[in-house]
Design goal:
By secondary structure, the chain is α/β, with parallel strands linked by helices. The protein has 8 helices and 10 strands. The protein has 2 domains: 132 residues, CBS-domain, CATH 3.10.580; 61 residues, Histidine-containing Protein, Chain: A (2-Layer Sandwich). The longest helix is centred in the C-terminal third of the chain and has 15 residues. The two termini are 27 Å apart.
Length: 202
């Protein structure tokens, strides 16, 4: 399964000159946690997250500390350029989703911009996108696998239980490889098994 199979297309983006208040409104309206920052050619130059935007945005309430006057504090950031991360991690559409997931988990980021060969944004893949793909109903998964097998001209039986796919029909080593590879490309598949192997055949 590739990133392009699960990513959000036409993602919300901002420019470095976008005001922080507008960026906050965009995050709130889209119910997302971060956005790619792009230049005039739509190339990624950074990422701005909810943490970046709220870090200096909330004024401390003097009542919480029994103060009679607000303590002086620096002027808060005005535009995205002042708070964004300038070295964003990105992935390509043909990146394996497993690799993207590992990158998000190991770095604790919640989403990654997806770029083309010129560095232009073509989508965003998030943990939520992966969860959505893995949560697909079994009947949808089976229908897609059946469709792919039909395109290959094979009539193999498919059973799906909680994302676990069992294929009955392929006998030769070549057909088994084709079946396993094909099923693995389908979003929502958590594991692939051959009925012959489950019956103890070799």
């Amino acid at each position: 399964m590739f990133v392009q199979d699960v990513m959000t297309r036409r993602p919300v983006t901002v420019r470095a000159s976008t005001h922080v208040s507008e960026a906050l409104r965009l995050l709130d309206a889209a119910k997302i946690t971060s956005m790619p920052v792009v230049d005039a050619a739509h190339r990624v130059i950074g990422v701005v997250s909810e943490a970046d935007l709220v870090r200096e945005a909330v004024l401390p309430d003097p009542r919480a500390r029994l103060l009679t006057a607000t303590e002086p504090r620096p002027e808060p950031p005005g535009v995205v350029d002042e708070v964004m991360s300038r070295h964003p991690m990105t992935v390509r559409g043909d990146t394996d989703v497993a690799e993207a997931v590992e990158l998000m988990i190991s770095t604790t980021v919640k989403s990654l911009p997806v770029v083309d060969e010129h560095g232009r944004v073509v989508g965003v893949v998030s943990r939520r996108d992966v969860v959505h793909a893995l949560a697909r109903p079994d009947d949808e998964i089976r229908a897609q696998v059946d469709e792919l097998f039909g395109q290959l001209g094979v009539d193999w039986d498919v059973r799906v239980d909680e994302g676990r796919v069992v294929v009955d029909g392929p006998v030769s080593a070549r057909d088994r490889t084709i079946a396993t590879t094909t099923v693995t490309t389908v979003p929502g598949v958590r594991s692939v098994h051959l009925a012959e192997e489950e019956r103890g055949w070799t």
